[in-house]
Design a protein that fits this description.
By secondary structure, this protein is α/β, with parallel strands linked by helices. The protein folds into two domains: 342 residues, 3-Layer(aba) Sandwich (Rossmann fold), CATH 3.40.50.12780; 125 residues, ANL, C-terminal domain (GMP Synthetase, Chain A, domain 3), CATH 3.30.300.30. It has 20 helices and 31 strands. The strands form nine sheets. Strands 5-4-17-16-18-19-20 form a seven-stranded mixed β-sheet, with helices on both faces. The protein has a five-stranded parallel β-sheet with strand order 7-6-8-11-12, with helices on both faces. Strand 6, helix 7 and strand 7 form a beta-alpha-beta unit. The relative contact order is 0.11.
Amino acid sequence: MAPTLAAGTDGPLWSPAPARAAGTALARFAARAGAVAGRDLSRYADLHRWSVTDLAGFWGLMWDFADLPGDRPGPVFVPDATLTAARFFPEARLSFAEACLRGPDGDEVIVWRSEAGEERRLTRGDLRAMVARLQRFLRAEGVVPGDRVAALLPNTPEAVALMLACAATGAVWVGCAPEFGAPAVLDRFGQVAPKILFVAGQYHHGGKRFDLTDKARAVTEGLPGLTRVVQVGGGPAIADALPMEDALVGAGAPVPDFPRLPFDHPLCVMFSSGTTGKPKAIIHRAGGVLLQHLKEHRLHCDIGPGDRVFQYSTISWMMWNWHVSALASGATLLLFDGAAMYPQATSLLDYAEDEGATHFGTSAGWLDALRRSGARPIDTHDLSALRCITSTGSPLSAEGFRHVHQAVKADVHLASISGGTDILSCFVLGVPTDPVHAGEIQAPGLGMAVDVVDAAGQPARRGDLVCRQPFPSMPLGFWNDPDGARYHASYFARFPGLWHHGDDAEVTPTGGIVIHGRSDTTLNPAGVRIGTAEIYGPLAGIPEISEAACIGQDWQGDSRIVLFLRLAAGQALTPELEARIRATLRREASPRHVPARILAVPDLPRTVSGKISETAIARVVNGRSAGNADALANPESLTHFRDLSALQT
């Protein structure tokens, strides 16, 4: 294990004050759980052990603790020897939209800001009215439960309202951000045959306006099953599209109704990145997603009524759905539409300061970019309301943890969280009552029987992250996979009887978890397993490096590490810099972490959600097809990795 990631040796980076810990929803829940279990569960490890031992007791208590509206006859949990056949709340009925829209009409529930500084504010009454009008429109268009409604939209209040209107109607929400190319959109929407498409005429990013009319035409022509196209917002008119304003027109002020549907009714379809083929269309159930998000928000993030939650995301990323669900905990959503670092590096924190954000969610990549910018918000911003920062998307290095506390805010719960689109939630995340150690994710989530196993499926300190028990947000399956073969192959073939998530993980001496990267990008020179994050962590302290990607190159019957760098503006890969990189990795990691080759490239390929695609680089370097280039935001960058003479020796 790389020393830079081996947290726990220097003591906690942050610990909550006793009064703060005692006042959390998690502490209250632990007291109630202790009463149910008949023993003290105030220690998180004990509470977690009970939560995965008594699944019915835990999830039943979570429903009650969240005061979830719905009808709950019958059992909480029906086990089965096969994880996918186990059922949670098989006779229960609820409405995702009802849970998100309950509360006084006068409360402010959405604040929206664009990168240009435009703002809108909606009360719960405003949002309920918009949802009601959209629900009325969908029904008038013949949408019935199970029909798919697609959205090609930026992150706006209309997107939130449409998602909730779909849930209230029983329609299945399918969303894509507008920066996706038309082929990538059709790779996703084309699988599920939507009945109605909502599309923006334009969007703004990085100070530029992007016209979507040509893309909208290509998408609509590629979806022959559409019965209606609705244009949302301004911009050039899209041919044959009904303006959103006309769709909302109707007599009177409608009130949404919330028919309660089965717990397992499909809520949405999410898509995998699709870098190695057509994206997997993953079907998620309404009840499971809602209950998981309520658990994660209330217990793990301490989100409650009156909190103001800012998650930077587009509608394509699972974190957007996670953000919307915070409405069910009584929170206000702070939406942002635009580039994260435009017009300046601190734009997101400017917004967080202005709106008194209590919770801020971002990516490890953004936190690293903020560090490289030299900004010190701790000196320039009033973030006194901010209690929790969540980081996800990729592993956050120990250096990244320390920088947040040194340069953003000292007294803040910094929670690295990890899960995925596959489960629309987290396997491992924060614990607001416990200490945080630099470089570590604090613990497995409650109700999640997470383990780390070796190649034989036996418990190990380091290996593959798995889950041993069913959980409510397991997917219903994949679209167009009637016998479940693709679903089974994706998660259950590697370790029969266990959910295999594909993360290279390690349990630390403190009981925390370090994610070293994806199992399929794990480096294996001379048979030594090295996670890519073990290399990126030490590089975080080298200012000349803007971004990095390391891969394993097939070499002389073995594998060797190749490190690609995108350097900061004005920098070059000099012999001195290369020597410093090698010395840093040798000192802070080990000699085995030192790459065989280090190369500078103009750009690195990234998915449309912003993640660097190590897989695409490795495939090209090793002479294979890059896979589905349409899944990349910048497929042209792959030309930098083909037939490199420096990799021939």
